[in-house]
Description:
By secondary structure, the chain is mostly helical. It has 18 helices and no strands.
Amino acid sequence: MVGVKRINMFKRREIDMTQGSIAKNILLFALPLLLGNLFQQLYNMVDVWVIGQTDNVDAYTAVGNVGPIINMLIGFFSGLASGAGVIISQYYGAKNEKKANEVSHTAMAMTLVLALIFTIVGIASAPLLLRLMFGSGDDGAGILSQAQVYLTIYFAGVVGLMVYNMGAGILRAIGDSVRPFWYLVVAAVINIVLDFVFVFFCNMGVAGVALATVIAQLTSAVLTVITLLKTSTCVRLDFRKLKIDIPILKNIFAIGFPAALQMMLTALSNVFVQSYVANVNAVKAHCMGGWTTYSKIDQFIFLPVQSISLAVTTLVGQSLGAGDIKRAKKGTYIAFFMSLGVTAFVIALVMAFAPQLAAFFNDDPNVLYYAELLLKYITPFYIFCSVNQVFAAALRGGGNTKAPMYILLGSFVLFRQIYLFIVSNFISNEILPVAFGYPAGWFLCASIMLIYYFKVGFSHSKIVAKEG
C-alpha cells in the first residue's frame, strides 16, 4: 500500500538568513517571491488584456493607467509595512520572538485602521487625480469616466490588498516567502476566471475587471490571515492581542514613514509624468494606449530586481539584528551582482521580442507604434535600476530609510519634474524626449546611491532589536 504524505501548509517554512550560504538563501527567498510577484502582476495585466480585446481604446487606456493613483495610497502603506517588516526581521535575527510577535499584532491592527481611511480617501480623491492625469478636455472624457468606475470599485475593496500585503510582509520578515506565493497563485487564478466571466459573459466591462481584482485580493487576504492564526512561528496571530502598542507604532513610523513618503510622492510624480505623456503632440488615445502597453511590460522587467531587493532587506535586517555587519555587507554585494545578471537577461529578452510582447496587450497598429518605440529606446537603461533597488533595500534593512528617501525623491520626483517641464516646454513635446525622464532619473539615482553607500554604509542604521 502506497502511503499518502500529508502536506501541512502551516508548518514552519522560514529561512534563517543569519546562517548558511548567502547566495542560496537569497535565491531560495527571492524565487518564490519573484513567482508570487509575477502572479500579482497578473491582476492588472489580465484586466488590461481582457479589456484590450473589447476594442474599446478608452477603457483599455483607463484600466492600464490608473496604477500611479492606486500606488499613491498603496505605496504609502507599503512603506509603513516595510518598517514593520524591518523591525520584525531584526527581532527575529536577535531571537527575541516575544517582541517580534508584539510588532506583528500592532502592524496588523494598524493595517485595519488604515484600510478604512484609505477606502474613504481613495474614492474621494480619485476624480481630482484623474483630471490631473488625463486632463478635462473632451478627448479625455471617455478615459476619465472609465477610470473613475475602476477606481471606485477598487478602493471600496482595498482592505483585501492591504491585509494581504501586511500579512505577507510579516511572513517574509521571518524568511517565509513560500506561502505568500501560493496565495497569490490562488488569487491570480480566481482573478483570471472572474475577468472572463464578468467581461465576456456578463458584459460588465471595466466594472467587471475591477470587481474580479477585488474578489481575488480578498481571497489572498483571507488565506494569509488563516496562516497567521495557525502558524507555529513567533508571528502567530491572536485576535485577542490585536491592539496598537504606541511605542511599537512609533518605531514602525520612524523606520517606515520615510519609505512611505518616498513611495507616495514618487507615485504622485508618475501621475504628473502621465499628464505630460497625455499632452504630447500625438492622438491622446493612441499615445496613452502605447504608454499603457509599455507600462505593463515595465512592471515585469522590474520584478526580478524587486524580488532580490526584498530578499536583501530581510537578510540585512536579520544579520544586523544578530550583530553580524560583515554578513550584511557581503549579502548586499552578492544580491547586487545577482540582480545585474538577471536584469541584463530580461532586457535582452524584451529587446528581442518587443513587437510580440506589445501586440499581446493590444494589436491596434497606432497603439503598437508607440509601445514598440518606448520599449526599443527605454529598456536598455533598466540596468541602472539594479543599483537603485538593491542598495536602497539594503539600507532600509538596516533601518536607515531616510537616506534612500532623500535620494529617490530627489531623483524620481524633483529632478524628473524639472526635466519634464524643460523638455516639454523648451525642447520637444514628443513622446521619446518626455519618456526619457525615466532613464535620466534612474541614472542620477544610481550615481548618488553608490556614492552614499560606499561612504556611509550601515553606520547610520537603526537596530531596534538592541533597544528592545
